[in-house]
Design the sequence.
């Protein structure tokens, strides 16, 4: 009897410990927080994350008066010419600079509209839920500065902002790894594992966003990807009719939407380098930034379809996704 009395407390303690729920892992804590606060990936790329320049030069002042413009190009390129009122920052420093925005909507400007996507994801995940990318970046705002005002734009001191035209290509047309076969059949994976010293969702998110920004823009040339597609887990973020019309990189999946709440992110391999591609590299930059925040190893295919099959893109159907040099240059200051 005395023996049972001695071991009974021990059994009770063990039993209680076994019945206690295990603490949630950081990924689950973060995912639940993102879903509950309308910060799932589809929320990041819903209508409104990107804006085109004003329709006419006469609308520029009104367009800028309500926006806080953060230019994340290099200091040297910013000095050569930038949008009036824009402040120069870095991708890593975009959240610090955002504190100065007051009640203005934040507009992030880069060279092509691709790197800015990483910054806008960071901003939207950090409370600046209406932050936007300037579509096409400075390439779409102004092409040239006439350095000596002689009208020819051919002198060494003249500046060409267009980084887009050099990024367009049709090298994938006819390539052995570009196919019209059906996209790959999805399979289900576990979610990625992330580590954190905190069990507080907001703290986990803050740390993950900071790490994503510090790592910089994650993008690869399209030739690296369609040249060796088996090196990656590739997702074509198009609607099905576009895949049928143009084809896709051999072995690519077509997973759209991509959400935590809907479970589609489980179709991405957390042990592979995940590549997403779109039309212009701008949406895929947003997706890539988000995936890196939640624990995937992700890269964006630079310039999207414009960097692979530009000559094949149908302007009667997909005109808004096709790069063309702007017909007029909007004002910049030096």
Sequence:
């Amino acid at each position: 009897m005395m023996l049972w009395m001695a071991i009974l407390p021990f059994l009770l303690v063990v039993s209680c410990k076994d019945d206690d729920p295990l603490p949630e892992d950081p990924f689950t804590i973060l995912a639940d927080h993102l879903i509950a606060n309308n910060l799932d990936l589809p929320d990041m790329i819903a209508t409104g994350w990107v804006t085109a320049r004003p329709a006419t030069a006469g609308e520029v002042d009104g367009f800028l008066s309500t926006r806080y413009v953060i230019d994340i190009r290099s200091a040297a390129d910013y000095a050569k010419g930038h949008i009036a009122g824009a402040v120069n920052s870095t991708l890593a420093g975009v959240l610090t600079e955002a504190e100065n925005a007051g009640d203005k909507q934040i507009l992030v400007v880069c060279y092509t509209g691709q790197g800015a996507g990483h910054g806008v994801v960071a901003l939207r995940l950090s409370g600046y839920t209406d932050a936007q990318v300037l579509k096409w970046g400075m390439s779409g705002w102004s092409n040239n500065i006439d350095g000596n005002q002689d009208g020819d734009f051919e002198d060494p001191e003249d500046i060409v902002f267009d980084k887009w035209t050099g990024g367009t290509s049709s090298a994938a047309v006819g390539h052995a790894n570009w196919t019209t076969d059906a996209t790959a059949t999805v399979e289900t994976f576990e979610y990625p594992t992330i580590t954190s010293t905190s069990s507080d969702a907001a703290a986990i998110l803050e740390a993950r966003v900071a790490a994503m920004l510090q790592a910089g823009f994650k993008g690869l040339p399209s030739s690296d990807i369609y040249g060796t597609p088996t090196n990656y887990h590739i997702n074509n973020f198009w609607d099905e009719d576009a895949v049928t019309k143009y084809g896709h990189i051999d072995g690519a999946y077509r997973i759209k939407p991509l959400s935590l709440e809907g479970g589609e992110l489980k179709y991405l391999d957390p042990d592979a380098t995940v590549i997403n591609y779109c039309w212009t590299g701008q949406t895929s930059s947003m997706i890539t930034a988000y995936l890196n925040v939640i624990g995937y190893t992700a890269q964006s295919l630079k310039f999207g379809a414009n960097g692979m099959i530009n000559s094949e893109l149908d302007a009667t159907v997909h005109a808004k996704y096709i790069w063309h040099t702007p017909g007029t240059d909007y004002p910049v200051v030096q």
Summary: The longest helix spans residues 2-19.
